[in-house]
């Protein structure tokens, strides 16, 4: 009887996962292939899939199955499957179906409107859409737990297994520590050469990007690389697609985005194939996902070791641009700290987290009713001036630069910084356990790191809660210690400053 109930549950869980995958494919198509006038149909499609999904995840049959299933009768992966789906069921059951459908429909139309507003550099064009999303998300949070701070409820959608208190503590520590480091760097000699700026034709950038992600181990038979306005990755262990964008005047931004997204893809492609469609065969939450992309982008791509391998490849593709450039030049240029930069995805490893803190503080204030949507552009600009000493001149450089809020992803931003923190924690352990890791990276041998990540993180799926997984791999709970040690060593050496 117990196994019959479990098999019924597992079939329903796979159906839910399949619906989620279909919705992801619709999102990919909307961002990469869909014609401009397709938004009306796509909005309806998304809302109907959301409605069907909501009906299935909140069904009485599923609720009854959970009452019949005794966790003590199952093994580790089966318990994980039950735990994860039950958590989602319990939360979703509290959200009215009409609210879920409204949210899904509004997110599709708001993203389209955001693209127009960004192109015309005018926040007012999407202001009303964002007001509706904020109000819907407040209702959503209240329906799940009216006793909790609304923002906390939304954060737990994206990171249920790192405590809200730990997240706040980590972000506050980053804010305090990194602000001091930025001040010290501001008093040091600047790195005035940027060897990654120049003329870099898009077709050549695509060619070198494909070469690099292939070297990282990306399986082209299970993926593809396309161009979109905002780089993203989605998929599963059988079909995981990357998008990037190219700046023909800045090669570092393009390569960094592509390598970052490939880090996400390697995680998905490294999940256990026999458990596809179940939590035990699915990626852990966003902080772990971001730790994988950040590791490849920052600890590998921006390292002196990897540049020893990459620079000859760059010279072959961009002969004139990299003539006379040595590894030290490239390393210093790639890691230059620029507090005047206004764009999050172009930020260096230090100021990036001040960009995140701005968004975290603003979205928390928005959802908790402490800030009105109409006040957002000026509040954004004020915080940039306070934390980074620079004020945006336009909405496109300010409040319109990210897609997240306009697609309803409020509570998401902290996971980026948590991911960087965890990437340093994981990389420290990998460096300890993989013999001569830096030498391997310098020779272009990336399989050792990829295999370590696959064995210790990717293959674990959702078997463990986030904090449990981190402790199992590194021996410690999530902490900012490893990240701050890494930053102080790296940038202390680059700028000749003391911590």
Characterization of this structure:
A hairpin with a 4-residue loop joins strand 2 and strand 3 (240-244). Strands 1-3-2 form a three-stranded mixed sheet. The mean pLDDT is 95. It starts with a helix and ends with a helix. The longest helix is centred in the N-terminal third of the chain and has 31 residues, at 2-32. It folds into two domains: 2-147; 164-197 and 264-294 and 313-495, Orthogonal Bundle (Neurolysin, domain 3). It is mainly alpha-helical and 499 residues long. 63% of the residues lie in helices and 2% in strands. It is built from 20 helices and three strands. The radius of gyration is 23 Å and the shape is globular.
Number of domains: 2
The CATH topology label of the largest domain is Neurolysin, domain 3
Helix content: 55-70%
Order of helices and strands: HHHHHHHHHEEEHHHHHHHHHHH
Overall structural class, as computed from helix and strand content, comes to: mainly alpha
Q: What is the overall pLDDT average?
A: 95
The coarse silhouette is globular
The strands making up the biggest β-sheet line up spatially as: 1-3-2
So what's the CATH class of the largest domain? Mainly Alpha
| Cα distance spanning the termini | 62 Å
Query: Spans of 5+ residues with little confidence (pLDDT < 50)?
Result: none
**Looking at the chains present, what oligomeric state does this protein adopt?**
single chain
Q: What's the story with the biggest beta sheet? A: 3 strands, mixed
Give the beta-strand count: 3
Specify Rg, calculated over alpha carbons.
23 Å
How many helices? The count is 20
**What is the second-level CATH architecture of the largest domain?**
Orthogonal Bundle
What portion of the residues fall into strands of 2 or more residues? under 5%
């Amino acid at each position: 009887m117990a196994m019959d109930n479990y098999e019924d549950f597992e079939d329903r869980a796979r159906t839910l996962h399949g619906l989620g995958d279909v919705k992801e494919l619709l999102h990919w198509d909307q961002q990469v292939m869909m014609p401009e006038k397709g938004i009306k149909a796509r909005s309806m499609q998304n809302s109907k899939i959301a409605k069907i999904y909501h009906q299935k995840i909140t069904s009485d049959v599923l609720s009854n199955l959970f009452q019949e299933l005794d966790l003590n009768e199952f093994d580790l992966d089966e318990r994980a499957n039950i735990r994860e789906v039950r958590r989602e069921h319990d939360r979703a059951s509290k959200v009215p179906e009409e609210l879920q459908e409204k949210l899904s429909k509004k997110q599709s139309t708001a993203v389209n409107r955001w693209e127009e507003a960004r192109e015309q550099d005018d926040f007012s064009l999407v202001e009303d859409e964002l007001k509706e999303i904020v109000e819907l998300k407040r209702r959503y949070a209240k329906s799940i737990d009216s006793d909790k701070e609304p923002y906390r409820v939304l954060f737990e959608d994206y990171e249920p297994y790192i405590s809200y208190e730990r997240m706040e503590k980590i972000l506050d520590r980053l804010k305090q520590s990194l602000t001091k480091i930025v001040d010290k760097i501001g008093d040091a000699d600047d790195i005035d050469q940027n060897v990654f700026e120049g003329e870099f034709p898009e077709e050549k950038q695509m060619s070198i990007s494909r070469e690099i992600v292939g070297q990282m181990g990306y399986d082209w038979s299970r993926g593809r690389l396309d161009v979109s306005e905002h780089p993203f990755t989605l998929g599963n262990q059988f079909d995981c697609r990357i998008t990037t964008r190219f700046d023909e005047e800045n090669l570092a931004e393009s390569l960094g985005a592509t390598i970052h997204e490939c880090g996400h893809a390697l995680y998905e492609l490294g999940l256990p194939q026999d458990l596809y469609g179940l939590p035990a065969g699915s990626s852990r939450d966003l902080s772990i996902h971001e730790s994988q992309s950040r590791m490849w982008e920052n600890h590998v791509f921006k390292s002196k070791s990897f540049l020893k391998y990459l620079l000859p490849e760059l010279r072959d593709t961009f002969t004139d641009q990299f003539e006379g450039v040595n590894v030290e030049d490239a390393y210093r240029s790639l890691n230059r700290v620029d507090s005047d930069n206004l764009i999050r995805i172009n930020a260096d490893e230090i100021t990036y987290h001040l960009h995140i803190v701005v968004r975290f503080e603003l979205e928390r204030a928005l959802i908790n009713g402490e800030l009105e949507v109409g006040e957002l552009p000026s509040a954004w600009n004020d915080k940039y001036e306070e934390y980074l000493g620079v004020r945006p001149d336009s909405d496109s450089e300010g409040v319109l630069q990210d897609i997240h809020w306009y697609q309803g992803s409020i509570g998401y931003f902290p996971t980026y910084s948590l991911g960087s923190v965890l990437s340093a924690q994981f990389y420290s352990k990998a460096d300890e356990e993989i013999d001569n890791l830096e030498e391997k990276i310098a020779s272009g041998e990336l399989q050792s790191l990829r295999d370590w990540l696959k064995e210790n993180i990717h293959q674990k799926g959702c078997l463990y809660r986030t904090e449990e997984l981190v402790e199992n791999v590194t021996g410690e709970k999530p902490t900012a210690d490893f990240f701050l040690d890494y930053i102080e060593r790296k940038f202390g050496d680059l700028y000749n400053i003391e911590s």
